[in-house]
Amino acid sequence: MKKRITLYGWLACVSILFILYALIKNYWVDPGASEFLSQKTGLKRELNLPIWLNIMYIHVAFACLAMASGLLNFSNRIFEKSRKFHRINGYVYIVSVLLVVLTSGYMAPYATGGKISSMGFNALNIMWLFITITALDQIKKKRMLQHRNWMIRSYAFCFTNMFIHLITTLVHQGFGLAYTISYTIGIYGSIVLLLMISQLIIRMKPTPE
Questions:
Q1: pLDDT by residue (tens digit) across 72-129?
Q2: Which residues contact 62 (CB under 8 A, 6 or more apart)?
Q3: Cα 154 vs. chain centroid, distance in angstroms?
């Protein structure tokens, strides 16, 4: 039991810390995203900054909401106390993922690294939406285990941004590659790693709490 609580505790700590980091950085420390935008060079499309920023704010808000609602729904304690809350919160997660995907679709053409990066984000969005809808379909069919497994895969994608920046930093500072190339590697690398990690967790058959 102690191990199970620890696993969920670590997940909760990482999720909460990343949510706080994302909110503070994007709404308080750098609301104009000047640091991030400074890396965008050679854009094929002209970026309308006010619109882009508003879309980014929506993107960040619902990404944080998806991470928070997904975390709550992995709690067996909450599930046992109120299945109604679990169900409603599940729809909050799905709507949040949908809005994250839609806003990401708008921002993809302006991605750092150009067309290759844009393609990576579009592929990621399609995969995330497909996986999330599959999780919903499985619970509609009363397949609890399959639903949980697909939700593990879906929730892993909530950490996409974190993994992209971790890989980008490692490749850029560790191997000295240009930031744009490192960022592109980060996008594709995060997709592969998140799919691998989620599959590994499923094989371990965890019970987070």
A1: 999 988 988 999 999 999 999 999 999 999 999 999 999 998 899 999 999 999 999 9
A2: 96, 97, 99, 100, 103
A3: 9
Angle at which helices 144-156 and 179-204 cross, to 10°: 160
Q: Taking the alpha carbons of 58, 61, 64, 68 in that order, is the dihedral positive or negative?
A: negative
Count of residues for the chain? 209
pTM for this entry: 0.91
Cβ contacts of 80 within 8 Å, gap of 6 or more: none
The DSSP result for 77-94, as a single string, is HHHHH-HHHHHHHHHHHH
- DSSP notation for 40-62: --S-SS---HHHHHHHHHHHHHH
The DSSP secondary-structure symbol of 128 reads: H
HSE-CB for 160 with a 13 A CA cutoff: 28
